[in-house]
């Protein structure tokens, strides 16, 4: 199989589990590709679990529960069973410790919607979901720290593991329009265009991802935290750290040969851009032929639609 790609998924609101969206269809497609290429396991960092001090943890609960997923029907997630990968979790802890991280296990961790609703979309049949390892963030939200976490775990890609960050390209809960969500459980209606700060940062993110590769990608993703619209687009840093984890995992010199793409997108709550990025592509057994994006285009998966202020 060669080295695997890396995904940064904007998980959006919990309605993304139930709503029929372009992003949800892409998550399913990525799951199908993962199964077709016999990925060994999933290593994922979400946006809702962070450790205090200088600590980072890896979930080692052999029978984790799942947190409540509001605004979606419990029938969609209550019977879906997690498939935790304890041996890989312990290995990740060892790899992180070897690079100087204060890393340890969390044997009581309960899975949170930012990870499991994406995994449910990817692998609707939980019996087919590869073993999953969940890595926490650190609550100091140091961008260099989280890039290094991704870089430290990058070697797992060469062994057939799929690394995923789930956060948000534009994710400011304080600036979203919540009325329809609260009254009607509806998040997709765009009664007005997104505000300029949301559009500006969304575009800056696409430009950085698609125009940079290798070490340049890591630097550019970190610099986005200095973008004039960053603080409006990311009211808190937690939903951006998984993007830096992904950049770290795909920011080696070796990764300069592979393209990065914006593959799908869904706007919610007026100002939340759920952009879905894939870094690199699967290769065949010879390591010469790329597959993946061509397959998606041949099946006519809808392309992202750019919302403009004139829409």
UniProtKB/TrEMBL annotation:
<keyword id="KW-0479">Metal-binding</keyword>
<keyword id="KW-0223">Dioxygenase</keyword>
<feature type="region of interest" description="Disordered">
    <location>
        <begin position="288"/>
        <end position="311"/>
    </location>
</feature>
<keyword id="KW-0560">Oxidoreductase</keyword>
<keyword id="KW-0862">Zinc</keyword>
<feature type="compositionally biased region" description="Basic and acidic residues">
    <location>
        <begin position="288"/>
        <end position="302"/>
    </location>
</feature>
<protein>
    <submittedName>
        <fullName>Extradiol ring-cleavage dioxygenase, class III enzyme, subunit B</fullName>
    </submittedName>
</protein>
<dbReference type="InterPro" id="IPR004183">
    <property type="entry name" value="Xdiol_dOase_suB"/>
</dbReference>
<dbReference type="InterPro" id="IPR014436">
    <property type="entry name" value="Extradiol_dOase_DODA"/>
</dbReference>
<feature type="domain" description="Extradiol ring-cleavage dioxygenase class III enzyme subunit B">
    <location>
        <begin position="7"/>
        <end position="252"/>
    </location>
</feature>
<dbReference type="GO" id="GO:0008198">
    <property type="term" value="F:ferrous iron binding"/>
</dbReference>
<dbReference type="Pfam" id="PF02900">
    <property type="entry name" value="LigB"/>
</dbReference>
<dbReference type="GO" id="GO:0008270">
    <property type="term" value="F:zinc ion binding"/>
</dbReference>
<dbReference type="GO" id="GO:0016702">
    <property type="term" value="F:oxidoreductase activity, acting on single donors with incorporation of molecular oxygen, incorporation of two atoms of oxygen"/>
</dbReference>
<comment type="similarity">
    <text>Belongs to the DODA-type extradiol aromatic ring-opening dioxygenase family.</text>
</comment>
